[in-house]
Give the backbone structure.
Amino acid sequence: MEQRTLGRTGRPVSVVGLGTWQLGADWGAVEDKDAVAVLEAAVEAGVTFFDTADVYGDGRSESTIGAFLRDNPELDILVGTKMGRRVEQAPENYTLDNFRQWIDRSRTNLGVDALDLVQLHCPPTAVYSSDEVYDALDTLVEEGAIRNYGVSVERTDEALAAIARGTTASVQIILNAFRLKPLDEVLPTAQAAGVGIIARVPLASGLLSGKYTADTAFAEDDHRNYNRAGAAFDVGETFSGVDYGTGVEAARQFADLVPDGITTAQAALAWIIAQEGVSTVIPGARNPEQARANAAAAKHGDLGARMDAAVTDIYDRHFRAAVHPRW
């Protein structure tokens, strides 16, 4: 699989990584043996980047990854975790003392002395511009608790604020065929600054898998059921913030564009990989088959100008003005 440098980490990562939210919670139940099988399948398919967070399953995702890597010490996997969502979302909680506690917990869960990459996990907007926050993160790098730090964001202005700091290694942002706003400014600015881009929610919570209909039912403990209106956390995390019915129709139109020999999900991932400035894309997988299929998207390359134009047309007709204005 193609490897790209993840921004200021200087580390190569596979263009298709693995998001592991679903191995913790909020996507329905996943047994431990099934979680390990997903990790094994991803690695066998060439994946070298795992994305997790301390809040996924209250540490379960991190612990699962840590145990897997201890059992497979020969693997060279870059693990990016995230911190900050286990407390009230107030800027004053983003302090050096709290960072130390959160990072120590993640180091224990992952079984490492230093974390490869720590990302602020969609904190309040003011945090991205706080000198004290970046000073605290720099201190943790100097102390050897973390090697690099980045941010996960909901909004493009948050991404731009973090990129401007000069020490941010990577930005994780929602980017998919139904969420094009980052293409306008975030990706070019990050690329010019040497900041890596991690594309998250790449399948719009499964809409772009091409498998859902208006009648699809999700489990009670699945965020695609209980968070459609943003009742539990930012609505952008669920179906990229688009109305479900609108998303299903747009996904049908996207599926009609997919060439033979590639699945709808693979086409959606390949389209993201082809965007200039993207370092890696992190689809989740609930089983080994999904992990292998996602990784195989890397071999399909650029799907061409026709697909680009069609994606923009679908976005402009369904989402630009009604859901999340591009401009």
About this structure: The mean pLDDT is 93. The beta strands are 3-5, 12-14, 18-19, 49-51, 78-83, 117-121, 149-152, 170-174, 196-200, 280-281. The longest helix spans residues 96-110.
